[in-house]
């Protein structure tokens, strides 16, 4: 159905087609109108719809989100869009890895029904001027180093929610602050969407899966293990009853500082929902970090209810 | 159906009930969940839904919006909410006139199906922290004198759109910049809602209908006619071929300045969609003004395609 529209006015900036591999049919489009049309058709049939928003270069972490969405919804849309407005001026927008062909294979194998892969021009008109902004929840942790990041995230996710109108949307706990920000946005703006947070997926040696891991050379890849080692150590301390934030965080920092290639951006303990700093672990606790390994900024965290 | 929920946890902050006058049935609720439930039931039945967002104290201007919504949709929701976050610190939030009983009568007579009349606590949690902000379109005209106004408008309208999920929403051209801001928000955030702008409704002597007209004493009420007189004069000049903004605006200003009780906030000519100032009338042109009559700030405008 999408191919018919290829001759239309958007043909230059988007694309649409049907991917057939192994007899399974999955559609891909770059056009907002096509997504809307397809989702409305599904709605008319009484089907539920799940959305997995991604920036592409999909890995096992994304796959776990898609798997869960496929299990919980009749139809699943994966958005695959490197959102320019969530990158700061000196960040890695241009370098961010892309591989749409590999993404298509992963989505098809996971059982997704539609990939939305727009060009930036389809999402942002030249005179685009509306943003969703958040106070407080977006200000600590990553919000300190990346002051415009969550404004870009909220805006694009709000747009994706309006385009796809899903029943449920799936986000990884790897980006724990992003998950808190999205939950808060959905609550504050009365969006009728269930936000599903999914556990961090790790490499066999512990490193949290991330599209940015591809930036690491061999030596850095080894050095990057300090993040997960610090996470596991902090988790262990809390399991053993330690509640003092300074005690836990200083031991975690020591692990990271022992690695010459690592430079800490932050290692902090906050409430997992409000992202307010905690001096003592209480309630649903997020212990999160951002660490530069060489020039690559990686994040990791654990959430524990105490 | 709503009355059953009165015993629930929201009973203290909202209210729900059925208004029966003259055999016609119209529901009123203060609860987001009740609105959602009702609208979902209508959707299930395949009915279209129109929304008329208001701050209450309804007059013939609002009635013209409801009439149009009733004519174009199977069901009509009127929201009746004095939105605190669109008032500045020294503005008239507390003084803003309210009369829900009269509003109910007008809505019933106009054929609305549901009034949403929430308390501020139902709309804004104590830790509310998400806002929809706009650049450019919201910055000129009223945005200069009321720098946080359109942020409050965009945020509440975004919430109302998510709560009601209407097919169409109706706004008066009296608030011309608000209409431009809402249209831009809907376009930028990909909301699947048709925005319908409706003409200004005037008193017999020309004064644009406004809930704020109630602030005027007899002498001020007479003085307030300088707004519509200036509007009609500017309109006449443009009809007669005048295109130079300065020429048109200076004559309009003269009319207003002749009235001792009037103090100009602005009289300007802009593009009606982008709200960019124009030196020469071209395209869809908005000529707009805000004028204090005593302490009451009134607005008026005309839009002409040239």
Features:
homodimer, 306 residues, alpha/beta, Rossmann fold, seven-stranded mixed sheet, 10 helices
Describe the structure.
Chain A is α/β, with parallel strands linked by helices and about 300 residues long. Chain A contains 10 helices and 11 strands. Chain A has helices spanning about 30-45, 60-70, 100-110, 120-125, 140-145, 150-165, 175-190, 220-225, 225-240, 245-255; strands spanning about 15-20, 25-30, 50-55, 75-80, 115, 130-135, 170, 195-200, 260-270, 285-295, 295-305. Chain A starts with 15 loop residues before the first strand and ends with a strand. At the A-B interface, strand 6, helix 6 and helix 7 of A face strand 6, helix 6 and helix 7 of B.
Instruction: Compute the average pLDDT of chain A.
Output: 93
Oligomeric organization of the protein chains: homodimer
DSSP strand tally of chain A: 11
Uncertain stretches of chain A? 1-15
Biggest interface pair, residues each?
Answer: A-B, 30 and 30 residues
**End-to-end Cα distance of chain A:** 51 Å
Number of helices of chain A: 10
**Class computed from helices, strands and strand pairing of chain A:** alpha/beta
Specify the CATH architecture of the largest domain in chain A.
Answer: 3-Layer(aba) Sandwich
Rough shape of chain A?
A: globular
Number of individual domains of chain A: 2
The largest sheet of chain A, given as strand count, sense and whether it forms a barrel, is:
7 strands, mixed
Radius of gyration of chain A: 20 Å
- What percent strand of chain A? 15-25%
CATH class of the largest domain in chain A: Alpha Beta
Specify the helix fraction band of chain A.
Answer: 25-40%
Give the strand line-up of the largest sheet of chain A.
Answer: 1-2-5-4-3-7-8
